[in-house]
Specification:
- The longest helix has 17 residues, at 510-526.
- This protein has a 7-stranded mixed β-sheet with strand order 2-3-1-4-5-9-6, with helices on both faces.
- A hairpin with a 3-residue loop joins strand 12 and strand 13.
- It is an alpha+beta fold and 668 residues long.
- Helix 1 crosses helix 9 (247-257) and helix 12 crosses helix 13.
- It is 28% helix and 31% strand.
């Protein structure tokens, strides 16, 4: 569309639970709008939005894709957001870029866990929601049943603006309740209910309606727009994307009701003060997605928040402080790219070949400095320890993982200081498999993987006094001498380490007392029982002796090191294990199985919260017991369960389990 202005733009995020037909519905929208000359199909690997090799292999959406097209003198930017629960970061960033959400609900399967999750996230953002009942042509589909299920979950404010002529194989047409109320008995019956629902959101219309006055179609539509905008009503429309049934009606509905960019208030921070983005005159933009294309290189997908940006303009990345240049600006439809000269406020476009651009970056012109609220992303729950098969790939592996971390806010990389593993963490087993696929395909790097070692720690449960150790070395030339006497006692959990100097009378020179401290800390880092770091101990230096010639720093470091290890073994040492806090969301009919499984994992149930057909279980569990929990929860709940974890504290490992950890061969 030439000379595009902000009022013509409609940004819509398509959200669903995996398998609800979002991509197929979007394919039918593109075909009905005349963008494509034929519909693509997921099993044929030729859909516009699922163009990544991994998406073709797994036959489902894995990454957020942007599809821009024109319809009814409007410009649509539709975001095909993956419906998998582990793609929650894509949902969060997409909702920062869009003004409305099209929630796809399978007419047969109904509302699922991730449907509730994306609904809640859209509600928190104040995003208007429209519901598409998909797959109404399926053999077991029934419109009345599906609509009732939606209302049970999301309330009676979900109103059917279109009625189907039938369900399952006989579904071939939809009728507008407001524009074609006399189409059949169902539309006539629905009309009064829809009108009442709309006028209830407007006091003036309600008063006129109760006085018997007829409310015009234009007035009803205007009130419906306002009700949708403020989260008071949620239109429902039946569809069957595979046969394009209801698709054109859906496009018309979005044209009529989806808000323009300036209708959703966005508050940003400027000079420490909250400001509406509509009051910002200069250029600002929000990066909602980044990726590396094997042919084009890095591509950054941008929501223009204010002002405009033209090809070859420079801008400031407010995270890095770097000045960058927009060599090209692309309008995108899947993997297809079209050069445009300028993008205006509200538009979604792509900028290629900017190396240091991350998801969630804010970019502006030189004089417009704004900040957006920091998003808190879920903690990755599944981890793998990795190492390249060949050492020559070390550098390529580091570069690739750094890039993936920049593109995906729920993927993390760290080198474990205790176990020395290079650990990658993501939201699921599939999430990490996709990372490894990219490593192999894009960077030609192959890795070996293993389950990360649990970060155990060692501590003591008793105190000991007067542990005496003398380090003496005489081998010709300068010797070494240092004698120390220490007391060792446990500290409260989480207090770490304390060194107390109680030397009196100068029996150890002050400079050598810090050497004793260094030696003790070195021994603690090495561990005594099984090579795990020591925590929560107090070491008190009470006595010792120096030699006028042979005492030196290294001698007292060694003496402190050996004295601590000697003392530690006499203090009834134990292993500590990391305990995590879990929040597990499952359908209510699985709650008994989940609790039984948690008990078998040494978990402690803290609370259970029932929410309609689902339950949220809060628990604490040892990290060692839940390293493969994601796959097992999915199996127990048929893919309906999800959970989050966060580190909580360290606790003592039970004696029988400690014995197995310290002597694994005996356990075999």
């Amino acid at each position: 569309m030439d000379r595009l202005n902000s009022s013509q733009i409609r940004n819509i995020a398509l959200l669903d639970h995996e398998g609800a037909g979002e991509t197929t519905l979007l394919e039918s929208m593109l075909h009905s709008a005349g963008v494509t000359n034929r519909m693509g199909h997921i099993d044929a690997h030729n859909t516009v939005s699922d163009f990544d090799p991994d998406e073709k292999q797994y036959e489902k959406s894995l990454y957020c894709s942007t599809l821009s097209f024109d319809y009814n003198d409007l410009h649509f930017n539709c975001l095909d957001v993956p419906g998998s629960p582990d793609a929650i970061a894509e949902v969060m960033t997409a909702l920062h870029a869009a003004e409305s959400a099209l929630i796809c609900v399978d007419a047969c399967d109904g509302v699922k866990v991730n449907t509730r999750r994306v609904w809640r996230l859209a509600s928190q953002r104040g995003i208007p929601r429209i519901i598409a009942l998909t797959k109404l042509d399926a053999d077991t589909a029934d419109f009345t049943t599906a609509l009732a299920a939606v209302k049970t979950e999301f309330g009676n404010r979900c109103i059917p603006l279109y009625i189907p002529n039938a369900s399952s194989a006989a579904f071939t047409e939809v009728y507008s309740v407001l524009h074609n109320r006399d189409a059949n008995a169902e539309t006539a019956a629905a009309y009064e209910q829809i009108v009442e629902a709309i006028v209830e959101t407007d006091d003036d219309l309600m008063e006129r309606y109760l006085e018997g006055e007829t409310i015009s179609e234009n007035e009803l539509t205007g009130a419906l727009k306002e009700a949708l905008l403020h989260g008071n009503l949620f239109p429902v429309i039946p569809t069957a994307g595979e046969h394009e049934t209801g698709t054109r009606a859906l496009l018309d509905l979005l044209s009529d009701l989806a808000p323009a960019p300036d209708k959703i208030e966005r508050i940003v921070e400027q000079c420490g003060e909250p400001v509406s983005i509509n009051d910002i005159k200069g250029f600002s933009g929000y990066v909602y997605h980044t990726e590396s294309d094997e042919f084009v290189g890095r591509i950054s997908y941008l929501r223009v928040l204010s002002g405009s940006i033209s090809a070859h303009d420079t801008f400031i990345n407010r995270r890095s402080g770097k000045e960058e240049k927009a060599g090209h600006i692309f309008r995108v439809i899947g993997k297809q790219q079209q050069d445009i000269s300028r993008a205006v406020a509200g538009d979604l476009v792509a900028i290629p070949r900017v190396a240091d651009m991350h998801a969630c970056d804010v970019i502006t012109d030189a004089t417009t400095d704004i900040k957006l609220d920091e998003m808190k992303f879920p903690m990755p729950m599944v981890s793998l320890a990795i190492r390249p098969k060949t050492t020559k790939d070390d550098q390529k592996l580091g570069m690739a993982l750094h890039e993936f971390e920049n593109d995906d806010r729920t993927f993390q990389v760290h080198s474990d200081s205790q176990t020395h593993d290079l650990v990658i963490s993501g939201m699921s087993d599939l999430h990490l498999r996709l990372v490894l696929n990219k490593l192999k395909r894009r960077y030609k790097v192959k890795v070996d993987t293993s389950t990360p070692r649990v970060a155990y720690m060692e501590t003591i449960t008793a105190a000991v006094q007067g542990i005496d150790y003398t380090h003496k070395k005489q081998s010709g030339g300068a010797g070494q001498f240092g004698r120390v006497v220490i007391n060792v006692e446990p500290l409260a959990r989480g207090e770490g380490y304390e060194f107390v100097d109680k030397i009196h009378g100068g029996v150890i020179d002050a400079v050598f007392r810090s050497s004793v401290d260094k030696g003790v800390q070195a021994a603690m880092q090495e561990g005594v029982m099984a090579g795990y770091p020591v925590a929560d101990v107090r070491v008190t230096l009470v006595d010792g002796k120096t030699h006028s010639v042979d005492s030196k720093d290294i001698a007292f470091q060694i003496a402190g090191h050996k004295a601590f290890k000697k003392a530690f073994k006499q203090c009834q040492p134990v292993l500590l294990e990391p305990i995590v806090k879990m929040a597990i969301s499952v359908p209510q009919d699985h709650i008994g199985d989940i609790m039984g499984d948690l008990n078998s994992r040494r978990a402690q149930i803290l609370a259970t919260d029932m929410k309609s057909s689902s339950a949220i279980i809060e628990a604490q569990a040892p990290m060692a017991e839940i390293q493969s929990y994601q796959a097992q929860l999915k199996a127990m709940t048929r893919g309906e369960g999800s959970y989050t974890i966060e580190f909580d504290h360290y606790d003592v490992v039970p004696a029988a389990i400690q014995k197995r950890i310290l002597n694994p061969s005996a356990a075999d």
